[in-house]
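User: quick one, fold this
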Amino acid sequence: MANRVNVVNYVEGDTKPDLVGRLVDVDISGFTIELHIDFPTPLVKTATIDDAENGEFSISWEPTDLVKGRYKAQIEVTDADGKIETFTNLLFVIEEQIA
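Assistant:
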C-alpha cells in the first residue's frame, strides 16, 4: 500500500491560518521543528513550540512565503539530543490570488 499524501492548501500571499501540528505523546521541550518546502529556492520555516508537554507547535507565514504552485514538503524534528526524524508525504498546493 502506498503512503498517503497529506495535502495542505493555501492561496499565494496568505499569512493565516498558521500551520499547526502535534506530536502525539511526545514532550517536545528542547526540540527544534522545521518545515522545508521544495520551492525553486527552498523555504525553511522554524516552528514555534506552543505547548511542549503536549507536543504542539505552529508555523507562521510572511506575505512572501507562499508562492503559487504544487510543492513537496517535509517536517524535520530534531530532539533535545540532536537526533533527527523527518516526516514526509506533504504536498503544498498554493493557488493564485484572484485580483
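User: anything notable?
Assistant: The domain at 6-95 is CATH 2.60.40.3350 (Immunoglobulin-like).
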